[in-house]
Amino acid sequence: MAKQLLETLPDQTKKLITRYLDMRPVPLGKIAKEFGVKVFTSPLEQGISGQIAKENGDFVIRINKYESRQRQRFTLAHELAHYFLHKDIIENEGPIKDNILYRSGKSDTVEAQANRLAAEIIMPDEKIKSDLNQLRKNMDEETFDMIASKWEVSNQALRIKLSTVGG
Ligand SMILES: [Zn+2]
Question: Which stretches make up the IrrE N-terminal-like domain (predicted)?
Fold first, then answer.
């Protein structure tokens, strides 16, 4: 398995995040709070799923209030990933605004990294392994639904995870 992005974060950051990865679903709001990141659900510009900006010294994430809860969770994880990985870009270039495909005008690498770290946080490899093994034995819709709802992710996110994590 490729090295986790989570492993590349500073020790203290990693330690604070890891504390929450034993919980199901992973409490993203608490992780944000731990780092002093403010989170709001707001009516954003059309086609924007989420954004992160530095405002008056604080990092502020806004999530599109009209999207589904699972979608909002992934968006929050994605924006938190930008916070952990791309603070300097936000500080130097201004807010990152992600559209529904999580494209923001930043490089593909930046967006791919944010998606990867988001998936690592929302479905931690070690914790979700046994669920994925259960799925491999039993790939019916019902099992997908049950496991997706346990982690509060979309079935699609779960399918992607299944294809990227070894058994
Ligand atoms: Zn993004």
Answer: 32-163
